[in-house]
Write a structure and sequence with these properties.
The chain is mainly beta. It is about 0% helix and about 50% strand. It is built from one helix and 14 strands. It has one helix at about 5-10, and strands at about 15-20, 25-30, 50-55, 65-70, 80-85, 85, 90-95, 105-110, 115-120, 125-130, 135-145, 150-160, 165-170, 180-185. Strands 2-1-3-4 form a four-stranded antiparallel β-sheet, with no helix packed on it. Strand 11 and strand 12 (about 150-160) form a beta hairpin. Mean pLDDT is about 85; it is low at about 1-5.
Length: about 200
């Protein structure tokens, strides 16, 4: 018995078949004398698998080799967070609502461009932040898991309301029993009504 690795002499045929995780054929078998003739196929959806089977047949119809490999696409983290609107001078509390995919989340990265101070670290899973100025802010959170899969969530409606300002002044000093006059100057904050 003689065996040879020389494919050119044996005139081998390379047959590729793609299956889903339930054994259904995704791509009909394609055959070629070129060992690099595997047909292109998109990566499976998250959480799905594809089995690729390669069968090598010689010119006499004898199967020389069969091999298979499974491709699995990890489920990515579902990154999400929420923040309530606050008045200027109060901490914004970033509540992390991220759900892990197939791997444990190993890295958090907050991108906060509010020009304020974090209360904690930008690599913690939760974050409190004190904005310096009122306004509407857009911030991001990226979660990366142990499989290297990452997703980024952007929230573009973080509101820090401007506080109202009140100044009271009087024109002169009055004696007891005399009605005093004064003026109140009220500067409204961001879309606020004066409640009291």
């Amino acid at each position: 018995i003689w065996a040879s690795d020389d494919y050119e002499i044996n005139n081998d045929t390379f047959s590729w078949t793609y299956f889903d995780q339930n054994g259904n054929i995704l791509v009909p078998t394609t055959s070629s004398s070129n060992p690099n003739s595997a047909p292109a196929y998109p990566a499976p959806d998250q959480g799905d698998s594809i089995k690729v089977v390669l069968t090598v047949t010689n010119e006499h119809g004898c199967i020389e080799s069969t091999d298979e490999i499974w491709f699995y696409t990890y489920i990515h983290p579902n990154t999400s967070f929420s923040v309530d609107s606050v008045c200027q001078g109060l901490e914004s509390i970033f509540e992390n609502n991220t759900q892990a995919g197939d791997g444990v989340i190993t890295l958090w990265n907050w991108t906060i461009d509010g020009g304020g101070q974090p209360i904690g670290s930008f690599s913690d899973s939760t974050l409190n932040y004190l904005y310096n100025n009122p306004g509407l802010y857009t911030e991001e959170l990226t979660a990366t898991d142990a499989n290297g899969c990452s997703t980024t969530y952007t929230l573009d409606s973080i509101t820090v309301w401007q506080n109202p300002e009140v100044t009271i002044s009087t024109s002169d000093e009055d004696c007891q029993g005399v009605i005093s006059e004064f003026e109140a100057i009220i500067s409204l904050g961001s879309n606020q009504n004066i409640n009291s």
